[in-house]
Design goal:
With 145 residues, the chain is α/β, with parallel strands linked by helices. It has a domain of 87 residues: Alpha-Beta Complex (Ribosomal Protein L13p, Chain: A), CATH 3.90.1180.10. Helix content is 33%, strand content 16%. It contains 6 helices and 5 strands. The strands form 2 sheets. Strands 1-2-5 form a 3-stranded parallel β-sheet. A two-stranded antiparallel sheet has the order 3-4. Strand 3 and strand 4 form a beta hairpin. The longest helix is centred in the first third of the chain and has 13 residues. 21% of the residues are buried. The mean pLDDT is 93.
Length: 145
């Protein structure tokens, strides 16, 4: 008699979340965003299950020191519309980094996550800080690495 192998499916009750620290100093925006998105989704875990949100917490520091390749600092635009006539607004990447460096990281990671019901929950677990200081040192020290 043959035995059938069973496919492992993670349950949401069995999810164990860890804390990861990502230093963005000198990293390229897109490559860092994909790394963060994988950690938020839990794709680095052997028990990854697509329909369960099993991702970890991610703390990204030094967001002001992120880099982009070529001349994207002057040519990359972030556009949005206010909803009013003539309300198209845009800001250049280097101006956004100078004013709100964490928004560039959050926007890049948000667009790399799958467009489903887990995206907002995953973004809540992302903590981005422009400098080296962050208030989550206690969680990082208790994490087994």
């Amino acid at each position: 008699m043959k035995t059938q192998n069973k496919t492992f499916m993670l349950r949401k009750e069995d999810v164990e979340r860890k804390w990861h620290l990502v230093d963005l100093d000198g990293q390229v925006l897109g490559r860092a965003a994909t790394k963060i998105a994988k950690l938020l989704m839990g794709k680095d875990k052997p028990a990854y299950t697509p329909h369960v949100d099993a991702g970890d917490y991610v703390i990204a520091i030094n967001a002001a020191k992120i880099e982009v390749t070529r001349n994207k600092a002057e040519r990359k635009f972030y556009r949005w519309h206010t909803g009013f006539p003539g309300g198209l607004r845009e800001i250049v990447f280097k101006d956004l980094i100078n004013k709100h460096p964490e928004r560039a990281i959050e926007k890049a990671v948000f667009n790399m996550l799958p467009k489903n019901k887990h995206r907002k929950k995953r973004m809540i677990r992302l903590k981005v800080y422009p400098l080296n200081e962050h208030p989550y040192q206690d969680q990082l020290t208790t994490t087994k690495r």
